[in-house]
Amino acid sequence: MRIYREKDYDAMSRRAASIIAAQVVSKPDCVLGLATGSSPVGAYQQLVKWYERGDLSFKEVRSVNLDEYCGLAPGHDQSYRYFMQANLFDHVDIRPENTNVPDGLAADPRVECARYEELVAGLGYADLQLLGIGRNGHIGFNEPCGEFPKATHVVDLTQSTIEANARFFASAGDVPRQALTMGIGTIMRARKILIVASGADKADAVAKAFFGPITPEMPASILQLHPDVTLVADESALSHVVEAEKR
Ligand code: F6R
Questions:
Q1: Which class for 231: exposed (0-12), middle (13-18), buried (19 or more C-beta within 10 A)?
Q2: Segments forming the whole domain that contains residue 76
Q3: Is 226 labeled as catalytic in the residue annotation?
């Protein structure tokens, strides 16, 4: 695993964006696995700047997002489709038909999961999968549990994730209770993984995920088994790693 230790969120974002841009430049029709949340916003902003300057094009890029809330329409301002449009897709030249996010409104979420898994497999899985990490170590919406879920599936969100995401909704009661997410198996089939983490509230999860035991109770710990992982994090998110590295 490669670790980039950056001084703050902005530096982390520039570093992550440069790794994504390098992927797009080296393979213009690559499949980018994308994430939502606070962690990748700065990287998306940087990518938009490079696009606006004419330094980068997404014309041939295909994208697959990790996850979506069940029950939220694409136009709902907290849906992950909306997030992707607002933070990246609407500002670059990616073709709308080449962007994929699970359908939160699917009549049968299980059928939608099977469709989405097949779609990602049909694209040959991600060339580069961007991830954030939850405070409980989740990746995508793969929450701590008894085993690593393989394929795209429906998940019941844990109380800690509902509380963490409540900041984006009017109240915790408005946070959807279920989501559709790529499985750990889907994520692990990406050829490269880029994980971004910022802030002291991620320090414990980062140290445990990358320096602790590999266990489904800490879903991101599976990444220790992936052959090409890059962690880009700021000083605060890495503050417990110094201790972990000494052990
Ligand atoms: C988002 C996702 C989540 C987030 C994680 C961290 O698509 O799948 O796993 O990456 O919850 O969220 P932030 O970046 O908001 O701290």
A1: buried
A2: 2-246
A3: no
